[in-house]
Amino acid sequence: MADKQTAEQAATIRSGYFDRDAFKEKKKSILVLKTGVAGLYFHVDTKTDEGKTFLASLTPGTELRLFRDTDNEHDRWAISVYTSDDRELGYITRFKNETIARLMDYGKVFHAYVDEPRERPKDETEERRTVAPTENFALPFSIYMDD
Predict the structure, then answer these.
(1) All domains in the chain, ordered by first residue
(2) Of these four, 31, 117, 131, 141, which has the most CB atoms within 10 Å of its CB?
């Protein structure tokens, strides 16, 4: 009887009693860029109640999807920004997209999440230095790269 119990206990340990996933190395994400959606007004009418309601539904932490738009005739490094239900929102601004596009072309994986609304810089010089003219901070988001 003792031999049977010992055999069952050993079988339990060998069959995965321990959580093997806990011992796997976890992926790290690196913050690459904080920005706003460029061209948002082409895809969402932010002046209507429907548009305002839609933007309000994109709460901080909402995941966004990024796609390389290699056929874009206006920007060879274009990256489209979509909601998880495939609604196009716009693009990463052309002033900040080249490095991410090159890494995407190389096979790197990126994730994007809606951020808390942010205040624009109060100093006009600081704003010109840090905010691209096409960025719309009605929908700020952060882009992370998997390491």
Answers:
(1) 27-146 (3.30.70.2330)
(2) 141
